[in-house]
What does this fold into?
Amino acid sequence: MNYIEELFSLKGKTASVIGGGGVLAGEMALGLAQAGANIAILDLNPDNANKNADLVRRQGVKALALQVDATSKDDLTKAEARISAELGAVDILINAPGINSSTPFLEIPEQEWDKILNVNLKSMFLACQIFGGKMIQNNNKGSIINVSSASSGPPLSKVFTYSVSKAGVNNLTQFLAREWAEQGVRVNAIAPGFFPAEQNRKILTPERTASIMKHTPMNRFGEAQELIGAVIWLASEKASSFVTGSIVRVDGGFTAMTI
Amino acid sequence: MQNQLLENKTALITGAGRGIGKAIALAFAQAGADVILVSRTATELQKVADEIAGFGRQAWPRTFDLSQLDDIAGFYAQITAQTGPVDILVNVAGVIHRAASLDFPADKWQQALNVNLSAPFRLCQCFARDRVAAQKPGKIINITSLLAEAGRASIPAYAASKSGLKILTQTLAVEWAQYHINVNAIGPGYIETELTEPLVNNEPFTSWVLSKTPMQRWGTPGDLTGAALFLASAQADFITGQTIYVDGGWLAQI
It folds into this structure.
C-alpha cells in the first residue's frame, strides 16, 4: 500500500449510507466502496437501494440494500442490528435523506413543514442516536458525515422549510462534534452547492439557474462524483484525524461570494 | 483514487523548513509531487530536501525572506526558470508576536502584515499570472488560523493578517474561478510546532487550549496533511473560496 492508499484507504470499514438510493448519496456510496469500505444502502425506495447496492458490489466490496424509513426509530434500530451482523460494526455513517418543496411561505401546510423537518432533520437526530450511540457503546472510533446545503444559511429564496432543516443539520453537527470528540467519533457536514439532483430539479427554472450561475464563480453545476473526495477525506480517520464540527462546502465558490 | 494523487505536479511551499510547511512538503512528495521549499533557514530546508530525495522526488530548497516584498516577483521568476511551472502554491510561512495592543510595536505589526498577508498575495499574483498565461489550472492553499474567526487578546497583527488572508482567499477564488485556479485555505487550531513549543510547555496556556478543544489535545502538523493533499488534488476541483478548519472541534463550540 503506498502513502496515499494508506492515508485514505477505508479497507475493511463498514459504511451506512442513509438515503443511499439517491443520486448524490449513491455516488458517495460508490466512492466509499472504491476506497474499500463495505456498504449498507438504506433508502425508503427499495428499488433505488438495490440498484445502488448492485453498483457498489461491482467494486468488489460487500453491499447490503435495506428498505428503511429514515424517520422511524424502529426501522433504523433494526437496520443497525442487521448491518452489524452482516457487515460488521458501523464505522462510517452518511446521513443523506432529503426532500424539498417550493410552496410559497404563506401557503405551506403544517403537514409539509412536519414532513420536511422529519425527513431532513429528525432522521439525522435518530440515526446519530442509533448508529452514533453504537459507536460510543462499542468504543469504536467513527466518522459521521451529514449532508447539509448551500441553503443552510443564509437561505435561498423559495425553499423555506428545507433551509430551516439544513440550518438544523449544521447545528446538530456542531453539537455532536463536541459531545463525542473525546470518544473519537467525529461529526462533520458536507454542504453541496448546486448539483442537479432530484430535490432541486423541479425548482430549477431557467431564471433560477441563471441567477445561481451569476453567484457561482465556477459558472457550472457540480457533478455528483465531485463530492467523493470530501467524503473519503472525512471518512478516513488518518486523513482527517483533527477535523470535527466542520461544514465542508463543495459549491464551486458559491459561499465565497455570500455575505 | 489514483495511486499518485499529485503525480507530475510541482508545488511551491513557503515555511517549508519546519512544522506545518515541512509536513505538507513531505506529504506532497510522497503523493508524487516535486517540491520547491522556501524558508529563511538553509540548514532546515536541506534536511527536508534530503528526505524528499529519499522518496524519489525532486526538491529545490531556496532560502528567501518573505518580508522583502519587492523582491518576491524576481525570486519567483528566477526559481521557476530553473524548476519549470508551478501547479500548486501553498502559503504556510507566518510570524506571530504577542503583546498588549496598547503597546504593540509598529514594526512588529508591519512585519506580520508583510509576511502573513502581503507576501502570500504577491506569491498568488506571480503564480496566477503564470497559470493564466499558460492557460493551465492551478491550486492555491493558504494557511490561515482559528484566529480569523474569533477575537483573542494580545495578537492584533496575527489576527488581522490571518483574517485578511481568509477574505483574500475568497476574493481570489471568486476572481480566478474563470481561470480554473482554486483558492482555498486551511484554518488550523492550536498545532504543536517549533513555533508554538513555548506555549505547549506553558501549563496554564496548554490547560486553556485543551479546555477549548473538544478533542482534548494539541493538533500535530500531520493532522493537516490529509486536508492539504485533498485540496491540492483533482478530487477538490469543485471546492474554492473555502476555509477548511482542522481544529479538533474548537469552532463547533462556544
Notes: The longest helix of chain B spans residues 106-134. Chain B has one domain: 10-245.
